[in-house]
Protein 1
Amino acid sequence: MLDVEQVRKDFPMLSVSMHDHPLIYLDNGATTLKPQSVIQAICEYLSSYSANAHRGDYDLSHRVDETFENVRQKVANFIHAPKKENIVFTYGASDSLNLVAYGYGLTHLQEDDEIILSFQEHASNTLPWFDVSRQKGCRIQYVTLDQDGQITLEHIKETINEHTKIIAISHISNVLGYLNPIKEICQYAHQKGIIVVVDGAQSVPHMPVDVEELDCDFLAFSAHKMCGPTGVGILYGKLNLLEETSPTRLGGGSNSRYYKDGQVTLKKVPAKFEAGTPNIEGVIGLGSAIDYLTQLSMKEIHEYELSLRRYAVDQLLQLDNVIVYNPDAQGPIAFNIKGVFSQDAASLFNTYGIAIRAGHHCAKLLDNYLETNTTCRASLYFYNTREEIDQFIEICKKGDDFLDAFFG
Ligand SMILES: Cc1ncc(COP(=O)(O)O)c(C=O)c1O
């Protein structure tokens, strides 16, 4: 069992106060807090073995190479990828999704092809596909969400036709929080030769994810949403697909030779995608974050978060002044205080030391589904407690007094 009180001691940020209240951080969908071990691993690189990666012929540099490549192996183990070569380091989930759209989509899609997206998607899994489809003369099709806002295999089947080449969807939506049936979608899509790109930004940090079991073609996620530092992303890809993907950035480290006539021989996957000095301290921090999460157990983290979410939602559902849009999802809780603009609500929570997110959450197509433009979002992580939820609920209860309380 997860010892949350013990775990909380690992996070220096949990001793910070906001407006004279201990911080209650419920914006983990945006980014997570970092344990001391991650901070320490980054500091150690910066203070005792700083050198560039993949370039030097001296001991410090070898140590950096070894540590950096070990992290690639750790990431592969973490998501059960067959080889470390399946793992490309990028600068964030957005960067990973851009790499698939421009590196694979642009070279494989033809005029009249179709890409399936959903209204749940984050801008990072929408805008690159808009641009690529515009450049190639393709069409975007949207899978219909069911009445709860979920994607079902049946709806995917209805959207697929002979033009469909790519399905790009989230594993867990960052607003509605539903776990999408990726394994079933991949099984069906592969029978039709369709590639499935999965945005795992909100799933990999919270639950065990096994890419071999899902059989997805690409999976994108970010280190900073799983206790690691900002500026590091991961793209998992099946090897044959990564080999067919063109790099979107060129430069030092990604080529083995080039000549004055413009001929370039690129390195093998994944080096061909990683031109320039990578975010070395970020990757090292990610390695430490994976060690931390693995030692806690992703299964236990997932179970704990589900029970904490249930605890929060059950209380929210009892409040007449609160609308919950996704009571039975797994991820973030999307809600509104009736009659209160979401950003006003977030500002009031802030005055009680509670950090939540308000707005569109970078998923602006969801307006097509939700009967509201913006929502509040409380996104939990394994270091949140029932006591924190109780305090959050107390503020929600202020209900109609909300604005009075806000403006005094
Ligand atoms: C579902 C989803 N996809 C992609 C992203 C983009 O991640 P990043 O900002 O780390 O590139 C986010 C970030 O909020 C997200 O929630």
Note: The mean pLDDT is 95.
Protein 2
Amino acid sequence: MAILPIYIYGSPILHKKVAPMVERPKDFDRILIDMWETMYDDDGIGLSANQVGLDLRFFVADFSLRDKKMERVVIINPEIISAEGESIEEEGCLSLPGIREQVPRAEKIVLRYENVDHQVIEREFSGFPARVVQHETDHLNGRVFTDRISSLKRSFIKSKLKRLAEKAASGKFAKDID
Ligand SMILES: [Zn+2]
């Protein structure tokens, strides 16, 4: 097991769309173990593969951290096929340490994805899990949550984002940011 370095805002891999995963890497099971370990170590609720530098279209999320009745999921090749309603809540991100913002999202979505057993699933998510799924699917589409806030709000955190991007350019990871 290993804690993987988390790429920060400004790292090119966070700002491009990740293509669907056709074949799974041979060491996929180990990658999953490392991703869970990395996510829990950094107190995250979800983690997408490109956040740890992997050009693979999947993410992990543990909804039970917020709601004990829910489970944790591995979501491969996610596509949001419908969305309705709106909710606004505060979000943070392991790739944007020190930044939290109110982010508008759909209240309810239907997601098509593959599970670890290669089954294609269409599942409805609402409330908190819907927010996490949208945040992580955004990552795999090359977007971070600050892309979803108004340009006025973004102007207030411009210097923070610039500083993160500068650190990314000099090869720093989330663990290097205090
Ligand atoms: Zn994130």
Note: Residues 12-170 form a domain with the Peptide Deformylase fold (CATH 3.90.45.10).
